[in-house]
Design a protein that fits this description.
The structure holds 2 protein chains of 2 kinds. Chain A is an alpha+beta fold. Among the domains of chain A are: about 1-145 and about 790-885, 3-Layer(aba) Sandwich (Rossmann fold); about 420-465, no CATH class; about 535-565. Chain A contains 18 helices and 21 strands. Chain A has helices spanning about 40-50, 60, 105-115, 130-135, 150-160, 170-185, 195-240, 240-390, 395-420, 475-495, 500-525, 535-565, 575-635, 640-670, 675-715, 715-780, 810-830, 845-860, and strands spanning about 1-10, 20, 25-30, 70-80, 80-90, 95-100, 105, 135, 420-425, 435, 440, 445-450, 455, 460-465, 785, 795, 800, 835-840, 865-870, 880, 885. Chain A has a 7-stranded antiparallel beta sheet with strand order 7-6-5-4-1-2-21, with helices on one face. Chain A has a 5-stranded parallel beta sheet with strand order 8-18-19-3-20, sandwiched between helices. By secondary structure, chain B is an alpha/beta fold. Chain B has 2 domains: about 1-245, Metallo-dependent phosphatases (Purple Acid Phosphatase, chain A, domain 2, 4-Layer Sandwich); about 250-380, no CATH class. In chain B, β5 (about 120) and β6 form a beta hairpin. Chain B is elongated, with a radius of gyration of 27 Å. Classes of the chains: A alpha+beta, B alpha/beta. The interface between A and B is large, with 50 and 45 residues. Chain A: This is GTP-binding protein. Chain A: InterPro entries: P-loop_NTPase. Chain A: Keywords: Coiled coil. Chain A: GO terms for molecular function: ATP hydrolysis activity.
């Protein structure tokens, strides 16, 4: 297929008719800037070849021009040497016209003929087969061509024709598709997880199994209930058996009678033991009484001996007590004397100290009064200096204003004089006196005429010179105003002139210095740390302090006046002497107190010893009296003879009681133990109680189990289990069937895929052989592989690299070469082909681009290649026919 | 005295190998046969129907199942139905009979015999029924032994009714449970001993018979027959009973074992054989085929079409055990062409199938499916 002419109108930017001029066999290049319409040309070509004129799809609508006119294209080409032409109009007044040599077709017939020509006869509507891979749009060259079934079938068709003995490829795909479709109803394609009927069967089987397990559990529970129910009925019958009840109650009554007899025997034994214990107690009491009387007599004798010893010791201790008492009284008297002397000395020392403090206060008061007087004098002087300063009118501010006004005045005067006309006199030496200017002698230097000036020349007359005013009047007025302002300020200051004002300002500065000196003097009289502005307050504080000191002194004098008046005796000693005397007397007093304490302790010790002995004597005397009383009481209670007789009688009674106890113990040993009887009775009572309780419990249990059984009966548990088993079995068989089917389909799929892969690899060999030279030219040493979808999964140079990991430029070059391979294959099988690249290879470096150009140029010797690019300079090296877009008046319709 | 003898109704029985539709129909017929028995009794002038146990399949049927036979019997108020428990519906304390009595679900014309002992059922003809009552599912004692000494008035017609297995009848294993003496009728002076438990008709001796189930419920009922009800006529206490067999079953159950298929003729013959069981009523046929053999590719397709699809739709139930194996050779693969991916895959699968074993079975099935898919593809292409 060789395009020879392409005309279009109504396509996107091409509202008006335009022709792609210069088309011919081999390599064709249209280099045009962006938005020149290159992509629109490609879309028009695609539409002409692959879209039906009657199509109303969005693709067709998108082709319409911006002006709204219907897309219209006329294409001339040769097909295996036959001149052909194709015209299509879309959307409005649609038509298709096709001429193939002498044959002419229109409408749908033309469409079908065209699709047959392009190998799309078997394709579905809208399916463009391999052509999208050969008509490569902008941006599409970066990716490998994605072929649909028709496109792949086209290639397979080419390959199958080229590869002998390869058949059944399409059939294998068809069968494999069916297998996958069927397998897809059982498992997911991605993860092979159960799905559809198989998954449902698995879920149903699990549910059925769970349901069956639940029912069988309920059945087991029911059977347990039934067994328990039967057991409960049996037990209940046993428990409610009247004969057994009578027998149990009789046994219990016999046990109770036996227990009563044993209890009576125990009572008798208890009484005998009590009697024996009483007899033993009586016997012991009497023997103890006898023993006590003997002991009491011996004790009484010991006590009397102790009394005599204590009385003898008391008599020797009494003189020592009296001596200690006298010694203690003497020490007390001495201590009182010493304490009085100490008190007198302490008073003397305090009086001396008060007198010394009064004198100290008088000194302080005198010093403070002197300081106050000096400060007050300095304060008066400061106030006088400040009053003098305040009376001077020319202060800093006024002087500054005056100086400013004077400068302004001088400034304006200078300006006036600078602009004023100058009057110069050059008089003869004798004429100077004859000329007067403004009534004064003629000046020697130039005179600025600021105002009307009269020049009087003796003997000549008077000249009045009036300077021209022009624009100098304003400046003159400003000068005059400045002078008036200066004079006003001078009047305020009471000065006649600036010199007077300067003099007065000097006075002012002197007064300021005087104030500073007076303030410094005043501050020097004040206490340290007084702030500069706190002078008056400090003086006032000093006054208050002096007043306070005076009051304190007066009060101290008053307090001290009393003692002074009483002091008729010699003058008091100094504080130090008084303190020394006080210390000595204090020491003496402390010494006297120590002696007194020692004497007191000695006295108290010997006094305590005396009292203790007296107490011991009293206790022993009381004990003697007590033993005597007890002896008398005992004898009164039971005389000695009576006691001996009672003791004999008690010993005989004890022997009798012990014999009675032994008799009872023998009887008890022959009977069953009471505890055992009690336990047996309790056990039998419990048994009867348990029986009653069991009956109640069994009745409730039976009721409860019967209710459960009724419920299970109502549900028909056995029938439900049978039904659930049946469902479970059916689903299990169904699931096993699916598993068999799945295994078979899986095996079939794998086997078919492997076979197809093997066959594909075999029949892809021609395509790879076709593509390999071009790849080797661009990528020396490269080995390319293709998968069954005609994609390049990887390339091998020094190492294997995945296609997706390659750079953008390399990927694009490979993708272009793959498309070129498709075109080559098509050409090899059908003798005609076409490849159109729009804006491809933009990312290729110059060296790689050169190689690709070589490949394209070489391929273009066999079939037509149309390159559309906006990189005119880069693609200059490509060579080929240079195309251009030329406006035309109208399309050459095929009528 | 004419009466009807039946047993083993097994109401509520389920069938795991049939679909839900057939399951419902089978169950419905097991109830419906009660009506047919009632009509048979009326037709034969029998006032009494003796049912020798296993009226119910389960000890705890659903309420509908429980009352269905009772309500069918209620429709025949002029017929007295005498029922005894069987091993499936033994008279346990909380069993099906206690439940019926407790719920008041027993019609007046239905008599439950839950205690052993003579019961006069026809005063005019002095007919006494001696029921043997199973109190549990299985017992080791012969519950008919009491009949030897059970008193009845002189000249009475003594009819025994029991459920179990007669011993010394080539069934030692079965007779371990619920054994019955083979000569009980003679020992106990019975005019007739009606038995239940075996689902096919079986006459033990002159006076002892198993009636079999009135509606067949299995492909293998042991001793042939089935689907029958007996009408017994006793003309006196010592006269031998006249026993007539009447067909009451609706469904025909047929088991065809060892069906070997090796050719298309075999397949057509099998189809004709099954359809011949009930030429006018194939829908009432349940058939169980045990199939084996080797079939070629074309014959396998025929088998799939004729037997597993069409014949299955024709009968009530087509149960298949086994399947013919695919007998494919390289010649059979020629349909896939001389070469190509499909041919190559078929060769691989055939080789695996010929290796046998579990993997070979999967490969065989895969190969069969490949043929099917291939034929579908060809059909679509055509």
């Amino acid at each position: 297929m060789i395009l020879t002419d392409l005309q279009l109108e109504g396509f996107r930017r091409f509202g008006a008719p335009v022709r792609l001029a210069g088309l011919g066999a081999g390599l064709n290049v249209l280099a045009a800037p962006n938005e020149a319409g290159k992509s629109t040309l490609l879309h028009a070509l695609r539409a002409a070849l692959t879209l039906r004129h009657s199509s109303k799809s969005q693709n067709v609508k998108d082709l319409a021009s911006y002006g709204g006119s219907a897309p219209h294209v006329v294409l001339h080409f040769t097909w295996n040497g036959i001149e052909c032409a194709l015209e299509k109009r879309f959307l409005s007044k649609t038509c298709t016209r096709l001429t193939l040599g002498p044959d002419r077709f229109e409408g749908d017939e033309a469409e079908e003929k065209l699709r047959s020509l392009l190998g799309l006869a078997q394709a579905t509507k809208g399916d463009a087969g391999l052509w999208p891979a050969l008509l490569v749009g902008q941006g599409e060259s970066f990716s490998l061509p994605v072929l649909n079934e028709t496109g792949q079938a086209s290639l397979r068709s080419c390959l199958a024709q080229g590869a002998e003995s390869v058949t059944g490829g399409a059939a294998a795909s068809s069968v494999l598709a069916k297998v996958r479709e069927r397998l897809g109803t059982l498992q997911t394609a991605s993860t092979n997880q159960p799905t559809g009927r198989y998954k449902k069967a698995l879920e149903q089987e699990a549910q059925a199994q769970a349901q069956l397990a639940t029912l069988e559990a309920r059945k087991a529970l029911l059977e347990e209930d039934l067994a328990s129910l039967e057991q409960a009925h049996r037990t209940l019958r046993e428990q409610t058996n009247p004969e057994r009840r009578v027998q149990d109650e009789g046994t219990l009554a016999a046990l109770r009678a036996e227990r009563d007899a044993v209890q009576q025997l125990e009572g008798e034994e208890k009484v005998a033991r009590a009697n024996a214990a009483f007899a033993e107690t009586t016997c012991n009491t009497l023997e103890q009484d006898k023993q006590r009387r003997t002991e009491n007599k011996a004790h009484q004798k010991d006590l009397l001996q102790q009394c005599a010893t204590i009385q003898q010791a008391l008599e020797s201790l009494t003189p020592r007590v009296q001596a200690a008492q006298k010694q203690r009284d003497a020490a007390a008297q001495r201590r009182q004397n010493c304490e009085q002397a100490h008190e007198q000395a302490r008073k003397q020392r305090m009086f001396a100290a008060q007198q010394a403090a009064l004198l100290q206060k008088q000194h302080i008061l005198a010093r403070e009064q002197a300081l106050l007087t000096r400060a007050e004098g300095a304060q008066v002087r400061l106030e006088q200096a400040q009053a003098t300063l305040a009376a001077l009118p020319v202060n800093d501010a006024l002087m500054q204003s005056l100086q400013t006004a004077e400068r302004t005045c001088v400034q304006y005067q200078a300006q006036c004089e600078a602009q004023a006309p100058k009057l110069s006199f050059a008089l003869l030496p004798d004429a100077a006196v004859k000329v007067k200017v403004a009534g004064a002698a003629c000046p020697q230097q130039d005179l600025s005429l600021l105002q009307e000036t009269q020049v009087e020349i003796e003997d000549i007359g008077t000249f009045t010179i009036t300077p021209a005013q022009h624009d100098k009047a304003g400046l003159f007025e400003k000068w005059q105003a400045a002078k008036a302002a200066l004079n006003t300020l001078l009047q305020q200051a009471g000065c006649q002139s600036m010199a007077d004002a300067t003099t007065r300002y000097a006075y002012y500065r002197q007064a300021q210095e005087a104030v500073l000196e007076a303030r410094a003097a005043f501050l020097a009289t004040l206490p340290e740390g007084t702030p500069a502005k706190g002078g008056a307050q400090a003086v006032e504080n000093m006054r208050k302090q002096v007043a306070q000191l005076s009051a304190d002194l007066a009060q101290a004098s008053t307090l001290l006046a009393g003692p002074l008046q009483d002091a008729q005796q010699p003058a008091p000693p100094t504080p130090e002497a008084a303190a020394e005397v006080e210390e000595k007397t204090a020491f003496a007093a402390e010494e006297a107190r120590q002696i007194e304490r020692t004497a007191q302790a000695s006295y108290e010790a010997i006094q305590a010893q005396h009292q203790s002995m007296q107490a011991s004597l009293r206790e022993v005397e009381q004990a003697v009296a007590q033993t005597q009383r007890e002896e008398e009481a005992s004898l009164a209670r039971r005389p000695e003879e009576t006691l001996t007789a009672d003791l004999l009688q008690a010993r005989q009674a004890l022997l009798i009681a012990k014999a009675a106890v032994e008799q009872c113990a023998l009887k008890r040993a022959q009977a069953r133990p009471l505890a055992m009887l009690e336990s047996s009775i309790e056990r039998h009572e419990q048994k009867l109680e348990n029986a009653r309780s069991n009956i109640t419990q069994l009745t409730g249990d039976i009721r409860e189990r019967e209710a459960r059984v009724r419920m299970a009966e109502g549900d028909g548990i056995d029938e439900q289990i049978a039904q659930a088993s049946r469902v479970f079995e059916r689903i299990r068989l169904e699931r096993e069937g699916y598993e068999r089917e799945r295994a078979a389909l899986d095996l079939l799929q794998k086997t078919l895929s492997a076979a197809e892969q093997e066959q594909t690899e075999r029949y892809l060999a021609p395509l790879l052989r076709t593509m390999q030279p071009a790849f080797s030219s661009v990528f020396p040493g490269i080995v390319v592989s293709l998968d069954t979808q005609f994609k390049v999964p990887e390339i091998t140079r020094k190492q294997t690299e995945a296609f997706t990991c390659l750079s953008d430029g390399t990927r694009e070059q490979i993708a272009v070469l793959v498309r070129l391979g498709f075109a080559e294959l098509l050409h090899a099988q059908h003798g005609t082909s076409l490849l159109v690249l729009d804006d491809a290879l933009s990312f290729s470096d110059s060296q790689r681009l050169e190689r690709v150009f070589d490949v394209l140029a070489e391929a273009a010797t066999r079939f037509q290649i149309l390159v559309l690019t906006c990189h005119a300079e880069s693609f200059t090296a490509l060579g080929g026919r240079r195309l251009s877009l030329t406006p035309i008046e109208s399309l050459t319709e095929l009528r | 005295m004419k009466f009807v003898h039946t047993s083993d109704w097994q109401i509520g029985r389920t069938f795991g190998f049939v679909n839900d539709e057939t399951q419902g129909a089978l169950q419905a017929q097991r109830v419906e046969v009660v009506r047919r028995i009632g009509h048979l009794a009326r037709q034969q002038g029998a006032k009494h129907v003796l049912v020798a146990g296993d009226i119910y399949e389960h000890e705890t049927p659903t309420e509908r199942t429980l009352y269905q036979p009772m309500e069918r019997m209620r429709e025949f108020a002029d017929v007295h139905w005498h029922l005894i428990p069987g091993n499936h519906d033994a008279n346990t304390p909380e069993g099906v009979w206690a439940r019926l009595v407790r719920e008041g679900g027993v019609p007046a014309n239905v008599h439950l015999h839950c205690q052993p002992g003579p019961v006069q059922i026809d005063e005019a003809e002095n007919v006494w029924l001696l029921p043997a009552v199973l109190q549990r599912r299985h017992v080791l004692a012969d519950l008919t032994a009491y009949m030897d000494t059970a008193p009845t008035p002189p000249g009475a017609v003594r009819i025994g009714l029991a459920h179990g297995s007669v011993v010394n009848f080539g069934n030692n294993e079965e007779a371990q449970h619920n054994p019955l003496a083979i000569d009980r009728a003679q020992k106990a002076g019975l005019s007739y001993l009606g038995l239940g438990d075996w689902h096919g008709f079986c006459q033990i001796n002159e006076r002892t018979c198993y009636s079999g189930t009135p509606e067949i419920d299995n492909f293998d009922i042991g001793r042939g027959g089935g689907g029958e009800t007996l009408v017994v006529d006793i003309q006196g206490a010592t006269a031998p009973p006249l026993i007539e067999r009447h067909k009451t079953g609706h469904y025909m159950w047929q088991k065809l074992g060892d069906v070997t298929l090796t050719s298309a003729e075999d397949i057509y013959a099998l189809d004709a054989r099954v359809r011949g069981i009930a030429p006018d009523n194939a829908g009432a046929v349940l058939v169980w085929l045990t199939v084996s053999g080797m079939l070629g590719v074309e014959d396998m397709a025929l088998y799939e079409s004729l037997i597993t699809r069409r014949l299955r739709a024709a009968v009530a139930c087509l149960r298949l055990s086994g399947t013919p194996q695919l007998n494919a050779g390289l010649d059979d693969l020629d349909c896939f062409g001389p070469a190509g991916a499909v041919r190559r895959a078929a060769e691989t699968l055939l080789a695996q199938a010929q290796n046998g074993g579990a993997e070979g079975a999967v490969a065989t099935e895969a190969l069969q499916r490949l043929f099917l898919f291939w034929n579908e593809s060809k059909g679509q292409a055509a």
